[in-house]
Amino acid sequence: MTHAIDHFQAWLREAHAMEIQAISLLKAQIGRIESYPELRERMEGHLAETEEQAAALHALLARTPGGVSLLREMAGRVSAAAQGIGSMMAADEVVKATMAAYAFEHSEIASYRVLIAAADELGDTEAIAVFERILAEEKAMADWLARHLDMVTRLYLMRDERDLLAKR
Ligand code: MG
Ligand code: FE
After folding, report:
1. What is the SS3 string spanning 61-73?
2. Rounded distance, CA 21 to CA 95, Å?
């Protein structure tokens, strides 16, 4: 199972890098949203969850000698100009940011499904428990965004008509 362990470790490091990226995306978005307090609050809640997710993944990596040492290299590869950031100058910024967040949550969901399968192959029950917990949080966030894309869009359109501070 040497190859499976290597793949598992690599996917785990990638997931950790993804959560570090999620932290900066959420912080950037929270810092810019002004007229959509519900969205802002939900993102603040998910930021707190995401910080715990990153710590939990770090703890799993730390179980393996040398598991953490590769993290810095990984983090460097994560593009700062990731999804969401590029859309921040757009007039419809809040709509674009909500779309980007929805897409991001789904790539997280995909990553944890892969990690759960790999951990199951390795009989790593401790890791499965962590991934299942995180997966539930990502699904809850994705569901919330799915329900609120409609509201954010309508609110944006309404405010844009009235020339209020619609874009964020
Ligand atoms: Mg996450
Ligand atoms: Fe997430």
Report:
1. HCCCCCCCCCHHH
2. 20
Structure tokens given for 51: 């910080």
Residues 6+ apart with CB under 8 A from 142: 102, 105, 106, 109
| Amino acid at residue number 65 | P
Residue in the structure block whose two tokens are 């998910």? 46
Read off the pLDDT of residues 65-100 as tens digits, 9 standing for 90 and up.
878 877 766 665 555 445 445 555 677 999 999 999
Residue 84 CA to ligand 1 center (angstroms) comes to 15
> What is the set of domains in the chain, with CATH numbers?
2-161 (1.20.1260.10)
Alpha helices by DSSP H, listed for 33-163, are 37-61, 71-77, 93-121, 125-161
- Which ligand places an atom closest to the C-alpha of 111? 1
